Amino acid sequence: MEHPDTLRSMANLASTFWDHGRWEYAEQLEVLVLQTRKMKLGTQHPSTLRSMANLALTFSSQGRWEHAEQLQVQVLETRKTKLGADHPDTLTSMANLAFTWKSSGRNAKAIELLRSCSAKQEQILGLDHPDTLSSSGTLLEWGTKALDVNA
């Protein structure tokens, strides 16, 4: 069960459960994969961080905002330290945390974080990158302007 291919298969199965709204099954597998990766690879390994991020998204889908936020903050801070604040994976973590904050009613914090993320995505990834377009569109959807950082 500790072989990387086995863990990847388990993570893929968890993703399939997630896609079908079977959160409990997804969570069970994600927890198992995360625990094994932490033990084998350490807490700062990219695969471990990806597992943490996936589990956080499952918690978000279940409305378990505190659990999701806790993991997302950990992933974001580790990625900032290991990859840098402008790395695309770090920016993805920022966007995920912004969505969790928005869903849990912390609109001002969510908008502020997503604005910062969107500005960095524009700089690093370009205006036409799907992640940049997604963040900008979400900010418009949330009733704010993507580039209006002084608002």
From TrEMBL:
* Name of the molecule in the record: Kinesin light chain
- Tree of life domain: Eukaryota
Q: Which Pfam families does the entry link to?
A: TPR_10 (PF13374)
The record's PANTHER family line, in alphabetical order, gives:
AAA+ ATPASE DOMAIN-CONTAINING PROTEIN-RELATED, ATP/GTP-BINDING PROTEIN-RELATED
Source organism per UniProt: Penicillium argentinense
Q: Please name the Gene3D superfamilies in this protein's record.
A: Tetratricopeptide repeat domain
